[in-house]
Every structure is written in C-alpha cells, then in structure tokens.
Amino acid sequence: MTDPLFDLVGRVIVVTGGLGQLGRAFSIGLADRGAQVAILDSDASPARTELLADRADDENLLVLEADVTDRDSLMCALTAIEARWGTPFGLVNNAGLDSPPGAPATENGPFESYPDKSWDRVMAVNAKGPFLCCQVFGGAMAAAGSGSIVNVASIYGLLSPDQRLYDYRRKRGETFFKPVAYAASKSALYNLTRYLATYWGARGVRVNTVTFAGVFDGQDEAFLSAYEQKVPLGRMAQPTDYLGPIVYLLSGASCYMTGANLVVDGGFTAW
Length: 271
Known about the structure:
It is a single chain. Strands 3-2-1-4-5-6-7 form a 7-stranded parallel beta sheet, sandwiched between helices. The protein is α/β, with parallel strands linked by helices. Helix 2 (46-49) links the parallel strand 2 (36-41) and strand 3. It is globular. Helices cover 39% and strands 15% of the residues. The chain has 9 helices and 7 strands; from the N terminus they run E-H-E-H-E-H-E-H-E-H-H-H-E-H-H-E. The longest helix has 29 residues, at 116-144. It has a single domain, classed as Rossmann fold, CATH 3.40.50.720. The chain has helices at residues 21-32, 46-49, 71-84, 116-144, 155-158, 167-171, 180-200, 221-228, 243-250; strands at residues 12-16, 36-41, 61-65, 90-93, 147-154, 205-212, 261-264.
C-alpha cells in the first residue's frame, strides 16, 4: 500500500532530460509510484528511446522530443501532455549540460581561454532551460492553483570545483581544469528557486532545489579514488540514491517546504 504522505498516484509530472542517466531513474521511479510521467528529451530517436524498451507498454510514461531552450518546443510538449493527461502538477528540471572529460582541450583548458561559445551553450541548457520550463509548465500549474517544481542543482553550484580532483590528469601531462560554466549555471538555480517560491507561493506552487553530488558512470579509477576520499560515505552516488528526494519534494510529505535547497551529496559539502 502506498504511504499517503508520499502518494503520487495520478499526478502528472514532467521530467526534462528524461532519457539521461538520472532522468531515466527519476521517470521510471515516479511512474512505478503511479505518477503519469512526461519524459522530455532533446533526442527522442529510436536509439535513445530503446533505453526504455522494457517499459514500452507503460501507460504512465510519455516520451516527447523537446528542446528546453526553445519556448515553442516546450509549448508543443505542454499541449501534448494536456491532451493526454491534463495540466502537469510536477516539474523536475533535470536536463543539464557539462563538458565531458573527453571534450576538446579548449573546453577543459585554463579559465583565461575558456570559449565564450561553450559558456553560452551550457548556460542555455542549464539556466535558460529551467527558466523557460518554469514559465511554460510552472505557469500552467499556477493557473491551475497547485504544483511542485524541483530544480536539480549540483555541489558545484554550492562550491567551487576542487581542481585537485583532476591532478591525476595533469600528472599525465594534460592541461585540464573543470570548466567554469557548469558551476556558474548551477548556482543560478538557487535564486531562480527562491524567486519563484515567493512569486508563486500564494498560487499553490512550491519551488525547491535539490543539490546532488557526482554519479558513478564508469569514471577513471584515478578520479574515483580522489573523489571518494572527499565523500564521508566513501562512494559516488547511484542514480537511484536520488529518487527518494525527488519523490519527497513532489509529494505531500514536503507540503510546507518551498524556496529551500535539499542537499543530498554523501556528505561531500560537510567538510
């Protein structure tokens, strides 16, 4: 039996970046709890949707191709969601962009030469994207008089990236620095959250941030060793470690929580 405090049955929830590593865990986990989940992703090609092949018959999942940086694309998604299920109750702003470890040297080089085009690309997805999604989906929630928005941030939005974690690459002779744009974009979410929490509070829409730490995804052993020494729990997260906080913030269990930041990082920021 579902605990009524955490009940999500029948709630329409939008998850951006829903075909990514975290997005899939959130989308499937929410659907398993009875939510009707609209998965938005910039790439909904057959190769990507194959990731959900074992859930092809799940009537609680709807995959839509949408660009979080394009308002018209998001409006089309909202129209499709409303036609199928009605107005969304929840929004998880999970879509994010970072420079991968294998990116060109200019992406991971010194701050002084970091390309402004790279800055613009990351900021468009990580900051403009949640802004537009809140306008489109959050606006619909406010008009309906209820809803919960979860903005997914990062420890690198609270803290500067610890460049020492990447010393192993420099010892290999590489010039490598964790880039600035991801950290700056994630820090922007905290005040977007606070602004909207105060703006929409009287209209029944709660807005909160979750701050997550790194997720295991086959990283280099040298990186894992350095990273895990900074985490009191001694490991990187698994995607399912973050599902509980998402369920909490979308459910009635957090009904008096808005404008807040829930830090779930294995203790990374505790020292």
